[in-house]
Write a sequence for this structure.
């Protein structure tokens, strides 16, 4: 952005450093446009920022069972954030260049394992006490380097073959990390942080007063303005801050000339090559950047959960979950996968027992009461048994159904569909759309009012 | 320590190159190759014709394993005579193939057909969602009947006839009867698919449609119906693979079987070159042999548990790095 | 009544408007040539008739029944054959198999193939080779033969002489002339000499519209009527 202003001033007034009035006007217009572009970002940030408070208020009211059932817990929201970041990094390569990175879990798992292994003193040259923020960056760098290696082989391939060779690499790592005895006593069950009692801290490295510890148990509550923020809430804000920074970084890249080449590769790679771009290096660069953020996401995951297993780090279904979130949220929209993950996690928690804070099952048990639950239905099966059979821990069934419905009827996902309706990216079009609506409503009201006045 | 290791490996190397070891590894490899052909052939047919990489394929194998096991348990019962067990098995072949084929046909007709005009990615995504649904349905049903969905369901093992339970002397070594049975079943299946594709009119339509669906349509072939038939055939074959696993101690029906068979099936189909039956057969033998060899080494010398599985994916990576379209691949398949 | 009637069809590829209201008709037993420069929509017209690129509006009727909205295979089964521009041989099927695909299921295979082999003896020689291994001229013969044996009332033939050696053009031309005796043909052809030899009538297509039509009687390839629309 800055460079463009300078260019404008050069064009307008030679080499003078002061901006002339024309340029100042241009700057003003541009910054207004910039603010408008980011209005939606601010709204979303605001909504995310007040969520813990909203959750607290709504679930502590008089009759709050419904709300407890419906709203995802703050702990769940932390998971939505870090996994959402992973899903966004998946979308960054897959949705924008069209190369389906089906082994993306390799980078997430690497980030997560790296953090836990450093904390357990298993990584040479790195002390367990290394500041977490540095670990996050290193986890990202490690994943990015790994991506350079994998990508150097894989980007000679296209389409399904590309998806499958990346899957192959990820699965090799999965098997390796599952069975490598160096990692811990029983690598199949995963590894947990054992070498470090304190929580991982996010903030300025080494300054305790400017950083906070995250984790469900290892995190620390904070007193702020007379009220106490619980450990989960503190983690939510800390993790959220990292995720937002990463999102903005990816968003900048996509809107840069580099990002335009990424999209050109998706739309017509042969043409991008014909114009003179060495697409191989662009793809490799994109892959490596996306792996960096996947590694950071994995690091956040391990930092919050303080453990990781081969199944929730490296397995191909981890990538599958990112794909799910991307499709539901909107493929090639960057922010979409975060909302997709929110939808996915929200649904899972709502429908399955795993969200012990609430969920439909608990809600039905509480609100239907014993007699209703014991009512016999067809074949002597009671309502209770039916509910237990179909709702107890079977969220993937419903997630699968919703996913299939999305593929069939909402193929562009949530953000993509809104975007198509508005005819441009949400951040750009939504404010205009809203203000149009608002103006229309205001005009209608005025008309009403004046009509009423006239009649009098 | 190091010297001991070197000694151990040279010892293992010496015993690997004995006739007994080589013959048993060879047959072990062929038996595994048969299993790989079974789990991958349906996937290959569907991909070759329709360009759809079916993520629900493993789930259908898992359905086949449960259904086949159920049929065996119901019909054959425990400790049967050999003819009863084998007769029951072939009845199960008919039941599983029919039921799964019907299910596959319905799924294709109801869910995949409406979105053929979209890019192939959406059809692949749809089968991915389908896999989630099918796996979870299996979990619900199986747990409803009090069976642990994660662990393999061993009830069908007791229906294995005695002639497959014993070993047979063959030259320098002896071979388990089940392995020979698996090899025979795999050969039969490959023969059946080959005959269908090359000797029947419908097979001709399938091959024409998989090379150039548009031209095939312009010659009067109802390619969409061919799709449905091939999808049904593919899921039927997936089901048969599950049935064949029902007597194998190492596998058995379980919900995770879906993912456990899906990934090897992908590997075999991809390194064979997507969609060619010949490639799939060759790839199955390659993967089966490497699996048998690495399993032998794991049993004899190397303590790394994941060795065979890791090699499965290493072969995928190496073959694709050397031949970006698999062994017999062409740059474009399917197309509609 | 015309065997084939195309009335005011509009066809798009994505957002680009290719056919802007094409109308034409072909009577039973006729050979009609559709001529025009590259890229004016000749091939698209054939594809629209076959419903491979279904028109967004307008109608196509064949032998009195509506084709618009049908699946391509149903159009083909109604008796329309297609000999496409780029031959579209099934590379991995043998020559004999390529022909067998085109035979209606009721036909005896041997009889059906013998018709093709009589017309193009070279095909019989190579009947067990893969289609992809044939030379360009042999592939064109195979494509023409595949169209001829399909028991079709109407043949849509796209650029049969394109890129062929003169000797083979002549042989293909003879085969088409023989086919013209027994079936109706809509022929897209750049080679005006060949087109006028075969055709009874012609239509000239220019940027998605029919701009001229008439009888070929007495017209030669260098006629002024063509010079404007068909580049030499």
């Amino acid at each position: 952005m800055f460079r463009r202003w300078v260019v404008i001033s050069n064009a307008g007034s030679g080499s003078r450093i002061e901006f002339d009035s024309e340029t100042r006007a241009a700057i003003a217009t541009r910054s207004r446009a910039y603010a408008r572009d980011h209005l939606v970002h601010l709204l979303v940030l605001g909504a995310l920022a007040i969520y813990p408070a909203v959750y607290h208020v709504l679930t502590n009211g008089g009759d709050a069972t419904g709300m407890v059932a419906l709203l995802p817990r703050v702990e769940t929201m932390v998971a939505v954030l870090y996994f959402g970041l992973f899903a966004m990094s998946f979308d960054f390569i897959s949705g924008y260049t069209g190369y389906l990175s089906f082994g993306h879990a390799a980078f997430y798992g690497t980030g997560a394992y790296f953090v836990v292994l450093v904390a357990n003193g298993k990584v040479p040259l790195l002390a367990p006490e290394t500041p977490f923020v540095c670990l996050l960056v290193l986890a990202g760098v490690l994943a990015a380097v790994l991506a350079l290696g994998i990508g150097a082989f894989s980007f000679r391939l296209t389409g399904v073959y590309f998806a499958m060779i990346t899957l192959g690499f990820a699965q090799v790592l999965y098997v390796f990390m599952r069975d490598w005895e160096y990692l811990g006593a029983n690598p199949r069950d995963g590894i947990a942080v054992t070498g470090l009692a304190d929580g991982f801290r996010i903030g300025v490295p080494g300054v305790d007063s400017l950083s906070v510890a995250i984790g469900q148990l290892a995190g620390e509550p904070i007193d702020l303005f007379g009220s106490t923020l619980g450990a989960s809430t503190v983690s939510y804000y800390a993790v959220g801050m990292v995720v937002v920074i990463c999102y903005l970084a990816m968003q900048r890249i996509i809107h840069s000339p580099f990002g335009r080449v990424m999209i050109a590769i998706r739309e017509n790679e042969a043409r991008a090559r014909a114009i003179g771009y060495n697409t191989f290096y662009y793809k490799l660069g994109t892959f490596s950047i996306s792996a960096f953020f996947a590694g950071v996401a994995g690091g956040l995951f391990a930092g919050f959960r303080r453990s990781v297993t081969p199944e929730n780090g490296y397995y191909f279904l981890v990538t599958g979950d990112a794909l799910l979130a991307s499709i539901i949220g909107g493929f090639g929209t960057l922010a979409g996968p975060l909302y997709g993950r929110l939808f996915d996690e929200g649904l899972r928690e709502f429908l399955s027992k795993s969200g012990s804070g609430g969920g439909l099952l608990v809600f039905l048990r509480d609100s239907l009461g014993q007699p209703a639950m014991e009512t016999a239905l067809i074949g002597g099966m009671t309502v209770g048994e039916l509910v237990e059979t179909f709702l107890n821990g079977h969220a993937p069934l419903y997630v699968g159904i919703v996913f299939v419905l999305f593929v069939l009827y909402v193929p562009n996902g949530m953000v993509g569909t809104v975007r198509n309706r508005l005819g441009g990216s949400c951040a750009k079009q939504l404010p205009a759309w809203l203000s149009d609506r608002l103006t229309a409503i205001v005009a209608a009201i005025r008309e009403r009012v004046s009509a009423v006045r006239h009649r009098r | 320590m190091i010297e001991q290791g070197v000694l151990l490996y040279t010892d293992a190397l010496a015993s690997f190159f004995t006739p007994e070891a080589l013959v048993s590894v060879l047959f072990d490899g062929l038996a595994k190759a048969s299993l790989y052909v079974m789990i991958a052939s349906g996937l290959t047919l569907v991909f070759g014709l329709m360009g759809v990489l079916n993520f629900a394929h493993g789930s259908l194998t898992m359905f086949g394993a449960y259904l086949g096991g159920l049929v065996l348990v119901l019909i054959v019962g425990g400790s049967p005579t050999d003819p009863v067990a084998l007769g029951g098995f072939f009845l199960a072949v008919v039941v599983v193939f029919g039921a799964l084929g019907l299910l596959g046909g319905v799924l294709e007709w109801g869910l995949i057909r409406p979105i053929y005009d979209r890019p192939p990615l959406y059809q692949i995504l749809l089968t991915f969602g389908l896999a989630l649904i099918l796996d979870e349905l299996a979990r619900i049903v199986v747990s409803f009947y009090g069976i642990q969905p994660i662990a393999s369901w061993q009830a069908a093992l007791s229906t294995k006839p005695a002639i497959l339970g014993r070993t047979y002397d063959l030259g320098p070594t002896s071979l388990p009867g089940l392995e020979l049975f698996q090899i025979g079943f795999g050969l039969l299946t490959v023969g059946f698919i080959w005959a269908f594709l090359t000797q029947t009119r419908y097979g001709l339509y399938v091959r024409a449609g998989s090379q150039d669906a548009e031209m095939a349509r312009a010659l009067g072939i109802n390619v969409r119906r061919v799709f449905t038939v091939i999808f049904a055939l593919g899921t039927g074959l997936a089901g048969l693979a599950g049935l064949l696993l029902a007597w194998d101690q190492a596998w058995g029906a379980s919900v995770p079987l879906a993912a456990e068979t899906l990934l090897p099936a992908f590997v075999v189909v991809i390194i064979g070159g997507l969609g060619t039956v010949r490639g799939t057969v060759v790839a199955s033998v390659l993967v089966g042999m490497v699996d048998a060899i690495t399993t032998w080494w794991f049993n004899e010398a190397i303590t790394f548990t994941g060795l065979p599985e890791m090699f499965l994916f290493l072969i995928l990576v190496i073959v694709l790095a050397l031949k970006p379209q698999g062994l017999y691949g062409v740059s474009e398949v399917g197309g509609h | 009544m015309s065997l084939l009637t195309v009335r005011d069809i509009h066809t798009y590829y994505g957002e680009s408007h290719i056919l802007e209201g094409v109308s034409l008709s072909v009577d039973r037993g006729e050979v009609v040539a559709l001529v025009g420069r590259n890229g004016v929509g000749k091939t698209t017209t054939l594809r629209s008739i076959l419903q491979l690129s279904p028109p967004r509006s307008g109608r196509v009727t064949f032998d009195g029944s509506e084709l618009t909205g049908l699946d391509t295979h149903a159009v083909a089964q109604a008796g329309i054959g297609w000999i496409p521009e780029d031959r579209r041989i099934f590379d991995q099927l043998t020559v004999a198999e390529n022909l067998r695909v085109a035979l209606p299921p009721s036909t005896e295979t041997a009889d059906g193939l013998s018709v093709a082999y009589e017309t193009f003896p070279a095909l019989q020689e190579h009947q067990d080779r893969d289609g992809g291994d044939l030379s360009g001229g042999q592939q064109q013969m195979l494509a023409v033969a595949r169209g001829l044996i399909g028991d079709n009332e109407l043949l849509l033939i796209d650029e049969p002489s394109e890129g062929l050696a003169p000797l083979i053009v002549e042989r293909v031309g003879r085969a088409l002339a023989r086919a013209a005796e027994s079936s109706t043909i809509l022929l897209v052809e750049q080679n005006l000499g060949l087109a006028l030899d075969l055709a009874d009538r012609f239509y000239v297509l220019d940027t998605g519209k029919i701009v001229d039509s008439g009888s070929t009687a007495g017209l030669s390839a260098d006629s002024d009527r063509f010079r404007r629309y068909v580049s030499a």
